[in-house]
Amino acid sequence: MSEKVDSPAQRGFKFEREVASIYRALGAEVVHDVAIAGNQIDVLAHERTTAGTLIRTAIECKAYSSQVGIEVVRSFAALANLLKSRGLIERAAIVSLNGYTRNSREAAAEFGVDLIEIDDLRKKIEKQPELLIKAKEEISVQDHISDVEIKPKRLFVVMPFAPEFNDIYILGIREVAENLGFVVERADEIEHIEPIVDVIQEKIRSCDAIIADTTGRNPNVFYEVGYANGVNCPAVLICREGDDIPFDLAGVNFIKYGSIVNLRERLDKRLRAIFDVDQP
Alpha carbon of 243 to those of 215, 218, 226, 257, 270: distances in Å? Predict the structure, then answer.
C-alpha cells in the first residue's frame, strides 16, 4: 500500500505552521493565516526591539521544490508596500524552503523585502528543541481556535486580465469586499508552481463564493463559473450594461453595471444579503 502524499496545499500549510512555530519559539507573538486589509497573510509576527518599539512583520512562506523567483518577490513587495502605507506592518519577509534566484535577491534588496531560508531559521532554534515543541503546540491550539471562530469570508474573483478591468477589480470589487472584512483573491495574484488550472480549482473549492465578470464572454471565465457550479460554490455574476448574456445564464440575477460607482453599490448590497451582513 503506497504512502499518502500531501497535496501542494497541505505541504504549504505545514510549512507555514513550521515557520510560525519557529518565530514563536524565538519570542515573537505570532498569528498564522491571518487576513489583513482583505489580504491573506501566511504569518504575522509581532516583535519588540530592545527600545520597546513594536515591529510587525508580514511573512510569506514558499515551500517550492525550486528557488523562489523574481515575480514572487515583486508581487509580495507590492502587497507589503500597501500594508506599510496603511500603517499595518513595518517589515516584510519571505521564507523559502529551497532558496532564491539571483534576480529575486536583487529585487528584494530594491523593494525592502527580507529573504530568509528555512534552514537558517531552523539553526537559530536547534539548540532549544523544547521551546520549539512548546511553540508548535501553541500554534496548533491557535489554529484550532481559529477554525472554531468565525473566519473572514474568502472570495475568489474570475474575470479577464485585460488592463481595462483593473479598476473594476480594485475599486469595484476588491475595495467593496475589503470594507466588509472579506479576503479577496484573483488568479493573477497567486504565485504557484502547480498548473494554474489546478490552483484555480483549489481556490474555488476553498472559497465562500466567487465573483465572476462575464463581460466579453471570456471562455476561461465561463469554465470557472461552470466549475464553481459543479462544486456548489455560490457565484455572484456581474457584467457591463449592454453586454450579451448567454442563453443558459439568462435566468441568473446578474449585477449589470454602467459605472464603478454603480457596481460598488449593487455588489455591496448583494454580498451583505448573501452573507447576512448588517447594513451600515
Answer: 6, 12, 19, 10, 20
H/E segment holding residue 112: none
Mapped onto helix, strand or coil, the DSSP state of residue 49 is coil
Give yes or no for a contact between 68 and 101, defined as CB atoms under 8 angstroms apart: yes
User: What is the C-alpha separation between 52 and 54, in angstroms, rounded?
Assistant: 6
Q: What is the pTM of this model?
A: 0.68
Cβ within 8 Å of residue 122, ≥6 positions away = 22
Measured CA distances, 169 to 4, 22, 134, 175, 247 (Å): 39, 36, 42, 8, 25
Where in the chain are the domains?
8-147, 154-275
- Any idea which residue has 445564464 for its cell? 249
Closest by alpha carbon to 157, among 196, 91, 204, 124?
Answer: 204
pLDDT attached to residue 1: 45
- Give the separation between CA 109 and CA 131, rounded to whole angstroms: 32
pLDDT at 268: 94
pLDDT of residue 8: 66
When the candidates are 3.40.1350.10, 2.60.40.10, 1.10.760.10, 3.50.50.60, the CATH number that belongs to 8-147 is: 3.40.1350.10
User: How confident is the chain (280 residues) per 10-residue block, as mean pLDDT?
Assistant: 60 90 94 83 92 94 90 89 92 96 95 96 93 88 60 88 86 90 81 72 91 91 92 92 78 88 94 84
Which SS3 state, helix, strand or coil, does residue 98 take?
Answer: coil
Ranges of H-type helices in the chain: 8-25, 70-85, 102-111, 118-125, 129-148, 166-167, 175-179, 196-206, 219-230, 260-275
